[in-house]
Amino acid sequence: MKALRKILFYLVLLFTVGVISLHAESLDTQKLLETIDELKTFQNKDFTAVMTMVSEDPEEGVEKRMVQQFRRDSEDKFLMLIIEPDVQKGQGYLRIDDNLWFYDYSSVFEPVVMGG
Question: According to the model, what pLDDT value does residue 22 have?
Answer without folding.
Answer: 55
